[in-house]
Write a structure and sequence with these properties.
Elements (H helix, E strand, L loop, with lengths): L3 E5 L3 H14 L2 E5 L2 H11 L3 E5 L7 H9 L9 E5 L6 H8 L3 E4 L4 H13 L8
Parallel strand pairs: 1-2, 1-3, 3-4, 4-5
Helix pairs in contact: 2-3
The structure holds manganese (II) ion.
Length: about 130
């Protein structure tokens, strides 16, 4: 069974792009189009890793991350923030919220692949960012 990754993203084009990439890497993807649905999907699907957009229509990706990391049942799941806000301080904000990693949009195929491999195929606890 392929490794399941949850992507929380409100933009259909980004969703389609990442779906295509994850499929080509051999991962399974489950999807949510806003933050609260994302948290419900975590409970329902228990993904191995979560990719989260920061700008979401309800609660933002940082708040999604805070809520999941505050729950002992889900705190171990790596969360990688994907954001177009390539502004200074963004990376720090993501890490402060509890994200395990950070990828700036537009997503580069190889960077995504390497980051996922790092978190999913390594035996050592992750601290890449
Ligand atoms: Mn968005």
């Amino acid at each position: 069974m392929a490794t399941k990754i949850l992507y929380i993203e409100d933009n259909p084009l980004n969703m389609r792009l990442i779906r295509k990439l994850l499929k080509s890497f051999g991962y399974d993807m489950v999807e949510a189009i806003d933050g609260l649905r994302g948290i419900q999907m975590v409970e329902a699907e228990l993904p191995y890793l979560i990719l989260v957009d920061i700008n979401l229509p309800d609660i933002d990706g940082l708040e999604v991350t805070r809520r999941l990391k505050a729950n002992p049942a889900y705190a171990h799941i790596p969360i990688i923030a994907l954001t177009a806000n390539a502004m200074h301080g963004d990376r720090e904000m993501c890490l402060e919220a509890g994200c395990d990693g950070y990828i700036a949009k537009p997503v580069v195929r190889q960077e995504l692949k390497n980051t996922l491999s790092y978190f999913l195929e390594s035996d050592t606890p992750a601290a890449a960012c």
